[in-house]
Description:
Layout: E1 6-13, E2 16-18, E3 54-56, E4 63-69, E5 76-80, E6 90-91, E7 98-102, E8 109-114, E9 118-122, E10 136-137, E11 154-157, H1 165-174, E12 178-181, H2 185-190, E13 200-203, H3 213-221, H4 230-243, H5 245-256, E14 261-264, H6 271-283, H7 287-295, H8 305-315, H9 325-328, H10 333-347, H11 350-356, H12 361-371
Parallel strand pairs: 11-14, 12-13, 12-14
Antiparallel strand pairs: 1-4, 2-3, 4-7, 5-6, 5-8, 8-9, 10-11
Amino acid sequence: MTDPISHVNVWPIPATIIEPQPDNEPQGVNKPQGETEGGDGSGRHGYRGATHSTRFSAEADDQLLVTWRGGSINVSVFVSVDPIDAGTNVRAPDGPGRVAVPRGAGRHYIHLFDPEHGFTVTAERRIRLDGPDNFRDIGGYRTTDGSETRWGRVFRSDRLNEFTDQDHEVLRDLGISTVFDLRSQVEADRQPDRLPIGVRHVHRPMSSDVDLKRGLLERITAGEMTSFTQSAMAAGYLRMLETYANHLAEIVTAVADGERILVHCTAGKDRTGIAAMVLAGLAGVADGDLLDDYEMSVRYRTPGLVEQFAEQVRAGGRDPDDYDIESMLGSPRPVMRRTLDGLYKRWGDHAGYAVYAGLDQATIEAARVNLRMPRL
C-alpha cells in the first residue's frame, strides 16, 4: 500500500518555469519566490524538501496549481463548489503529485481521490476580495487524530468596512450567517461593517494592550508605554482569554449550532487570531498548524505599515527602537507559542479552556463535530 496523500498545497499561477530537479529530490514544485514554507497554507501541510527554484510570471492569475506528496498512481482530481460533495467534474493529474485547474469565478474545492485512502480536500486558504486583505478559511488543517478541519465552516478576516457589492455576493455564496465583530466600540463606530442584508452582526469587543494601533501610539507618545516586547504581546493575548472567555464561548456555541461564521477585527491578527486558535485548537489541530495559521497574517499586512508607525512614534518624541514595532504590527510565531504555553499551564488543554469559558460537554462535542470533516 502506498503512503496517503500529504503535503498538499494550492496557489494561484499564471504560468511556471520549473528548473531541472536533482535526482534525489521528490517530484513537485517549490513555493513561489517570497513565500515561506506552505505556500498560502491551503493544504494539510506545506511542501517541504524540494530545493529547485520555480519562477512565476507577472500575468493575471488564471489557474490554481495543486501539489501533493504520496498517494497511488490512480489519483483522480475532482473540482466542485462544495467542500463535501466532490461532484462529477473529474480529471487526471498533470503529472506525479501535481495538477493545474482553472481558477474560475467563485469558491472552488479540489478533491483528490486515492482509491487506497479516500478523499483529501483542499482549496485556496485566502479568499481574494475587493475590501478585506486578510480574509481566510481555517479549513484543511490536520488534527492530531488524523482528521482535518472542515472547509467552509469558519472564516477569519480583517476589517469589513470596505466590502463591495461583489464581496457581498461572495459572502452569500459562502453561506456565512453570522459575523462576530471583535473590535472596540470606537473602531466599530469609525469604520462600521458593511454587510449584506440577512447576515447577523454580533459585536463582542475584545480589547487588550495589543488590540488597537492608534491606542498604542497614543500611549507611546504620552509616555505611558516605555517599551513593547513579544512577552508583553503574549501576556495581552492571555488576558484576552481570561477576560473575554464569554465572548469566545459564544463564538464556539454558534459553531456548535451549525452556523457558518466569520470572525474579524481590524487587522485580523490579534483578537481574530485568538478566536481562530480557540476554535482550531478545540477541533484538535496540532500546535504547529495553529502557529502557521496565526503567523500567516503578516503576509497580508499593508506594505510600509511598520515604517509609517515608526515615523509616527519618532514624530511624537519617542525612540521607535525602544519598541518591537515589527512584532507589534505583525504576527510573530513565538508570541502564539507563548500564548499556547500559557493556555496549557492554566487550563491543561483546549477542552479545559472551553470548560473554563462556561461551555458544557454537549456544546464542546457539537462544535468539534462541526469543525471537522465528516467521516465518510
